[in-house]
Write a structure and sequence with these properties.
- The structure is a single chain.
- With about 300 residues, the protein is of the alpha+beta class.
- About 45% of the residues lie in helices and about 10% in strands.
- It contains ten helices and seven strands.
- The strands form two sheets. A five-stranded mixed beta sheet has the order 3-4-7-6-5.
- Strand 1 and strand 2 form a beta hairpin.
- About 30% of the residues are buried.
Length: about 300
């Protein structure tokens, strides 16, 4: 039982390590017609690799050239739209708070018992992550030097954000605090970064490696076809603890775009953000994502969901 494939085949700083890795043996793009039998294999492979590398460089040059203007566009947005904190709008609700309770932005609230449950859950997440999941992900990373984990120091979601998610699940989905903690999909998260030409084959290979270590696929969301976010997000269940965790698959450009649009994402989930600003935030995300080179074959990777898994 695993992520289906086609027959044809939360904010850290950007890492200093480049995703510009050597081309592997399995080509990921089509070349103009070449007749390999007219030349020796070594010459053919060298010409092929040089062509792919040139295309890869050209794609990155396009993204790198667009990046300064995208940064300036965000600075202009911040100047037009002060955050709620700077504009003097209240962020905390006027709610009497019992000892041990928690209250957050947008009227979010956890009573003392629910808040204590979140504390216990966070302790358990941290323990399983450090003793089981992180060592396993390190082992998977070591199996292929042509890509790497990025932002590993941020693999645990902060307790305040977990409280927000639990409070929302209790209020809007009718879950108990225990159920809300059990259904957290990204309290633990990892990100692999690949070069464009190795992206699709690398994502498939790492999904296989995750399954080979006994981790159970939960879902896969392919956003390379979307216009406000590019990348693939997968969730997996650690079988002994039952904890869910997230593994994202990015290229350097899509990861940098995610970092660049993180502040816009945070504003979009802020209940105090006005509808007019939301329109501009979504337009900004589309503008950024339009500049991201799409890896060959990435858009064809199929989504995978509990419904599909269960037939």
């Amino acid at each position: 039982m695993g992520i289906e494939r086609l027959d044809e085949h939360d904010a850290p700083a950007v890492s200093e390590h480049s995703a510009d890795n050597p081309v592997g043996d399995q080509p990921a793009v089509d070349l103009p017609a070449i007749v390999p039998e007219t030349r020796d294999r070594a010459t053919y492979r060298a010409e092929y690799h040089a062509t792919v590398h040139a295309e890869y460089r050209a794609a990155h040059q396009s993204w790198d050239a667009a990046l300064p203007e995208l940064c300036r566009a965000w600075e202009a947005h911040e100047a037009r739209w002060p955050t709620p904190e700077r504009s003097g709008q209240p962020l905390q609700p006027d709610r009497p708070s019992a000892p041990g309770a928690w209250s957050g932005d947008g009227g979010r609230y956890l009573d003392p018992e629910a808040n204590a449950e979140v504390d216990r859950g966070c302790d358990r997440i941290r323990e399983v992550s450090e003793n089981v999941i992180v060592p396993g992900m390190r082992g998977i990373e070591a199996e292929d030097p042509d890509r790497h984990l990025i932002g590993l120091e941020y693999h645990l979601k902060g307790p305040e954000r977990i409280r927000e998610k639990v409070a929302d699940a209790v209020l809007y989905k009718g879950r108990t605090p225990v159920e809300a903690m059990e259904n957290l999909k990204d309290a633990i998260r990892f990100t692999f970064v690949y070069s464009e030409e190795r992206y699709t084959s690398g994502a498939y290979a790492d999904c296989d490696r995750l399954r080979d270590r006994g981790l159970q696929p939960f879902d896969l969301v392919n956003s390379w076809r979307a216009d406000e976010y590019k990348g693939i997000n997968t969730r997996w269940r650690e079988p002994e603890s039952g904890l869910l965790f997230e593994v994202q698959f990015h290229t350097r450009a899509s990861f940098e775009a995610k970092q660049l649009t993180h502040a816009a994402y945070e504003r979009l989930r802020n209940p105090l953000t006005s509808d007019n600003e939301r329109d501009e935030l979504q337009a900004y995300q589309r503008m950024v994502c339009a500049e991201i080179p799409i890896p060959p074959g990435a858009s064809e990777i199929e989504d995978y969901s509990p419904e599909k898994r269960d037939g």
